[in-house]
Amino acid sequence: MKERSNVAEIDALVKLLDDPDEEVFSSVQEKLLEYGNDAISHLETAWEKSLDTMMQERIENIVHTIQFTNVKQDLNLWYQSGAFDLLQGALIINRYQFPDLDEQAIINQIEDIKREIWVGLQYEMSSIEKIKLINHIFYNQFGFGGNTKNHHDPQNSYLNQVLESKKGNQISLAIIYSTIAQKLDIPVYGVNLPQHFILGYIDESNPDREQAVLFYINAFNKGAIFGKHDVDQFLRQLNLEPQPGFYAPCSNAEIVRRIIRNLISAYENLGAAEKVTELKQMQDILSETNN
For residue range 27-48, what is the model confidence (pLDDT) as tens digits? Predict the structure, then answer.
């Protein structure tokens, strides 16, 4: 019975959204936001039926506020729970721009690539041979590559767009690559290098995380394999002092922080001030002081 009365109240509130009185609208908006997800389908139906641009805009803003609140809550829960699943963290960021996305479809696409690699894996393969197999399937067969033409496009940071276009930035490609590798029990993890993001193949029996990296992989450049001396040289070119964090695997939270930083930079370039403000709120959720 309570559910029926809720539906009736939401419908009544939605009908008041075209009220020209700002005070009435403000009160209606507040109540709809309290209903949260329960109000979304009613709001979307009203948007489709309405020819009033002001009402449509109000509906869009309310729906976005509800969905953005969901993203912030999900991100906070992911972070406070230990940020164990990198793919889940990246999907939450994806939800910011694509709230109605079928996330299972993304997971299925990644599983398809994993399956193709699994078929070719052999027990006696060396670590380098395993990476060469991943590279062949991921870059040659599926056609993934770095988006060198439009590197600052925010779409490079959203997994659904990268899986569709097969083009991404260093982090999105590295997330897909390392997720597939880890699903195959191949120990490949993200390394947070300044001005670049790379992957490290880890000797999991070595407790020293920095020394445990057997070699590095550049997911942006067709999985190119390189060593520690190449990282040294890269840092020298940037005039940066070597630090342990530049060589060792980083946390999932650090990777998701970097996705957000990339998006802030991309939207600043586009002059999308509202998105920059919202992404900074998401950045605050992942700040070390919030743990």
Answer: 877 888 888 788 888 888 877 8
